[in-house]
Amino acid sequence: MVYNSEVLKLLEGYERDEDARHARHPAVPERTREAVDRYVLMGVMPGRFTQSVLANNLVGAVMAADQNNLRALPSVVAYVVQEIPGDP
Question: What's the whole-number mean pLDDT along residues 58-86?
Answer without folding.
Answer: 95
